[in-house]
Amino acid sequence: MTTDYEAFRAEIATWMQQHLRGEFEPIRNCSGLGDTGYDPKLAKRWEQELARGGWVGIGWPGEHGGRALPLSQQVVFHEEYVRAGGPGRLGHIGETLLAPTLMAFGTREQQQRFLPGILAGTEYWAQGYSEPNAGSDLANVQTRARLEGDSWVIDGQKTWTSWAHESDWIFVVARCEPGSQRHKGLVMLLVPLRQAGVTIRPIRQITGESEFNEVFFDGARTEGALHLGAPGEGWKVAMALLGFERGVSTLGQQAGFEREMQCLIDVARRNGAARDPALRQRIAQAAATLDALRCNALRVLAQDEAASGGVHVSREAYIAKYVWSNWRRDFGRLAADVLGAAACLPDDDPMAQKLRQVWLFSRSDTIYAGTNEIQLNLIAERALGMPR
Amino acid sequence: MDLKLTEEQRQIASSVEQLLADASDSTRMRRAAFEGEGFDAALWAQIGELGACGLHIPEAHGGLGLGVTELVLVAEQFGRRLACVPWLESAVLAGTTIKSLDDAAVAARWLPSLASGERIVAQDIGLLAGAPLAARPEGAGWRLDGVLPAVPAAMAAQWLLLPVQAQAGRLLLAVALDAPGVTRHPRANHDATRPLAEVGLKNVQIPAADCLGRGAAVDRALARSRRLTAVVLAAELVGVAQQCLDLTVAHLAQRVQFGKPLATFQALKHRCAQMMVAVELARSAALGAAREFDGGPHEGRALRLATMARCLADDAAQYCTQEAIQLHGGVGFTWEFDPHLYFKRAQATRSWLGTSSEWREHLAATLLDGAAA
Questions:
Q1: Euclidean distance between CA atoms A197 and B81, whole angstroms
Q2: What is the ipTM of this complex?
Q3: Which end of chain A is less crowded, N or C, counting CB atoms within 10 A of the terminal residue's CB?
């Protein structure tokens, strides 16, 4: 697509060819966790392989060990990575959500302690936001944190915590001022997951698999210095972190969708669905809309780069989550229709498996990270300025 | 691909926006549409002075030498105001067709006056099927007979570009609309802001010099022009959809029922939010397609880009114009309020340069059957 950076493209392609082989063969082309055959241990070793190649944190500033590549070059990396069959990234919560937040709000000690582990692919992070009574209403967080000597002590429960069982740390939004309400009195804590006070219980999903978990904190502890931002200002930090969610990682995700699209096309050609006129229309519409999602993501990035860290959220950024998640949910339906009867009849065919996975998994896309309904509230009230 | 706009691009868009906010507000647009046969000559002159007709025309031929991105930014403004000028028809469609012939002599003859807006060139896009044209060779030129039932901008134009199948092969002819044997009648049209005319050709003489191209060069130019114009037309539809959203949000803010503004009701807010979703995604598509066209994509990409821009803008315009009428309530069904004008434009545009389902089927054939783009 972009004609520049030919040498850079070649460098990535060559590196991928030389490293995504041998023991990593099984995870080639896997979208990520939830894909059959995506072994987390192997995926972590792959992250470390990437790290050794200098491909983690490529957009981070040099002082934090990154390569400070401009957005346009990061985009090229994501494109080439997927083109070469690179698997879904296990480290993205740490690399793209926590790391930028650490750089913006963390102390020098916190940065020096946590960024290297993320950069090396040796420490993995989970996100502790949602609770049983704080889903769409996130400000209703009830998990409590109190300072006891030089430790924070945490009690409460988080839920829908992706990959907690494969992670080492979790960032937790907790109430540190007893009796405080809503957005006030919260703190963002960095908490080790592997300790006696933490219990992780997998939740079985409609796919039959368990990607996310309930995480119980029962007198769990973390060091007194491990609050990110000031205690009481956790909401601000939590929201800033969500702002990083629409960074370049969306292009990695985009690339994954493109791979799913190709898989659907291959299956449709193979099983004859490609001859159905109505399906042909839907497939073309899905492909065209997928291209538009990419344009929207690039428009968001262009704005972000122009605003250079400013707080302005552009209109295209407001729609980003809604459009990709609804695209994918529709795509899931299309995938099932292309499969026909095989949608509900599992077999060993890897492409059919992938499409069945998307069919079911995509139902979660319009729920997590702000449901469709919350997204529409945000768009109406913040982007269109309609009254609350 | 970088989607950042330059300062110059922003200024071009905003200068057209400002001009039209005043010169093509609802009152003036309606006057031109219903009392001026859909052509506002004074506005056309202003647009010409602004250089908007030559945005994409090379500087050597009197244009500004800019790209599709600039066309798309400006088109959106024309769509928002339903400006009664043949900018898309002449500057974009005919201009791109002529430019795409890649013939220096043809470009030198036709582009400068088109870029300045002095000359309006229409192009037949076959909106309605008519009797097949007959082109008989005569000397070095041709004689034409036939009826073109619905030609955009044919009343305002001085020239008509006409692709013709002659015995010797494909020709692109320029017909002087004041030539003997040419008749023109405005056609009844629900979209009064984009007038069409029936053009009759009776034994019309076309001198050899008015043949702009022959054979494969014509097909190539028409295909390129069709794809590029589809992207610009998509941007125009984005403007249509945007204006419907703006009108609706403003209406809901001031209309009070049940003791509070309608804008406070969540069901209505969500409808507006979904309109914005459609608008912004279509805008991203048009902008992305334009930016890639500026990079000179190969033919396979051009089909995919045009399909993307066209289909999403069509969806957005259909959705937003329909919602604007519904959310205005009873007044949305009146002649006095504007939503119906946009609703009609959105529908009229659907048959231009291929329908969305035709674009999608063509794309499907490349994706699923390995067909050429």
A1: 63
A2: 0.95
A3: C
User: A125-232: which CATH topology?
Assistant: Butyryl-CoA Dehydrogenase, subunit A; domain 2 (2.40.110)
Kindly give, in sequence order, each residue whose CB lies less than 8 Å from that of residue A278, ignoring residues fewer than 6 positions away. none
Give the residue-averaged pLDDT of A2-8.
74
Cα–Cα distance, A92 to A44 (Å, whole number): 11
Which of A70-79, B230-239, B260-269 is the least confident region?
A: A70-79
Any idea which fold A246-383 has?
A: Butyryl-CoA Dehydrogenase, subunit A; domain 3 (1.20.140)
Rounded Cα distance between A323 and A338, Å, is 22
User: Is B273–A379 a contact, with Cβ atoms under 8 angstroms apart?
Assistant: yes
Which residue reads 């703190």 in tokens? A187
Mutate to test the interface with B, among A285, A316, A388 (most CBs of B within 10 A): A285
Compare CB distances from A3 to B266, B269, B295 and report the shortest one's residue.
B295
Contact assignment for A292 to B282 by CB distance below 8 Å: yes
For A53-69, letters b (16+ CB in 10 Å) and e give eebbbbbbeeebbbbeb
Phi, psi of B355 (to 5 degrees): -80, 165
pLDDT digit string (tens) for B142-191?
999 999 999 999 999 999 999 999 888 899 999 999 999 999 999 999 99
Helix, coil or strand: residue A199 = strand
C-alpha distances (whole Å) from A84 to each of A16, A30, A52, A259, A298 are: 6, 12, 18, 11, 21
Cα distances (angstroms) measured from residue A239 to each of A228, A287, A324: 13, 32, 20
Q: Where are the domains of chain A?
A: 6-90, 125-232, 246-383
Question: In terms of Cα–Cα distance, which of A326, A319, A332 is closest to A358?
Answer: A332
Question: CB-based contact (8 Å) between A1 and chain B?
Answer: yes
Domains of chain B: 7-119 (1.10.540.10), 134-213 (2.40.110.10), 217-368 (1.20.140.10)
Residue A36 vs residue A118, higher pLDDT: A118
Chain B residues in contact with A322 (beta carbon < 8 A) = 277
